[in-house]
Design brief:
The protein is built from eleven helices and nine strands. The protein is an alpha/beta fold and 262 residues long.
């Protein structure tokens, strides 16, 4: 017997482990839902790829999710959202939600000072971010920092806090951080280095990400479509990596880390 639509899983995708921070929040907000998380380690990182390459990678994962009869898809990767979501929504008749940098939340909460966003190059240069800033009329209020190479440091087998702190010090070297109220984390990977960010930037600037926003958006969408999982059981999570056995082991380790952060 096929699963009822309400019991079907929700697909969550990212280029690597960063989206596990999103998955952990999704599970907290929607504890009875089932999830399939796909980390595309084989093609990671997305941030230094072309828009066309990312489109192909994400399209293939979405097709995989469709074959698994998921009832909704979350793109838990700001880079992938920027590159693909318009085309995907036109082609597939299924709710596809994309994580966005929480710039509006930051701006709404503190309008008297400026905002910094750090993200991958593809996100920083992408039309989606530019259009959002234009829509809010805050192009001149947001400082954009392209953090190329940071994802690789976070996912490195020999993870080094020292190397990450050195990287962050160089990234923010010319930023007068006291001018800013919020640092928007424009990549889900960065949530795993909040402690390092606080060590470099201090505790006065507030760190913000889009995970709770996307989780609440998903809950509203499932409720509106009447496809919430009504089971009283805790939902299941299936983790998949397109990479190696080492990548799969890393996925399990970071999932435990992500769950401990929420």
């Amino acid at each position: 017997m096929n699963k009822l639509p309400n019991e079907s899983a929700i697909g969550v995708l990212d280029s690597g482990v960063g989206g596990l921070s999103t998955l952990a929040v999704l599970k907290k907000v929607l504890p009875h839902e089932n999830f399939i998380f796909y980390a595309d380690h084989k093609n990671a990182p997305y941030g230094d790829k072309t828009k066309e390459q990312v489109e192909k990678f994400v399209y293939d994962i979405v097709k995989f999710f469709i074959s698994k009869n998921v009832k909704a898809i979350i793109i838990a990767c700001n880079t992938a959202v920027s590159a693909t979501i318009k085309k995907l929504r036109k082609e597939f008749n299924i709710p596809i939600l994309g994580l966005e940098p929480a710039i509006k939340v930051a701006y709404d909460n503190c309008k008297e000072r400026d905002i910094v966003i750090m993200a991958t190059k593809l996100t920083i240069d992408g039309d989606k971010l530019k259009n959002l800033l234009k829509k809010l009329n805050i192009e001149n209020r947001v400082k954009k920092l392209s953090a190329s190479g940071l994802v690789e440091l976070i996912e490195a087998e020999n993870y080094s806090e020292v190397k990450i702190i050195e990287y962050l010090k160089e990234l923010f070297r010319k930023v007068e951080i006291k001018k800013y109220s919020y640092l928007v984390l424009g990549c889900t990977h960065y949530i795993f280095i909040k402690n390092e960010l606080k060590k470099v930037l201090g505790t006065k600037i507030k760190l913000i990400d889009g995970n709770l926003g996307i989780a609440n958006h998903l809950k509203r969408t499932l409720t509106k479509l009447n496809i919430l999982n009504l089971s009283k059981e805790v939902g299941k999570v299936e983790l998949i990596s397109s990479g190696t056995a080492k990548d799969m082991k890393k996925l399990n380790i970071f999932y435990e880390k992500a769950c401990s952060l929420v």
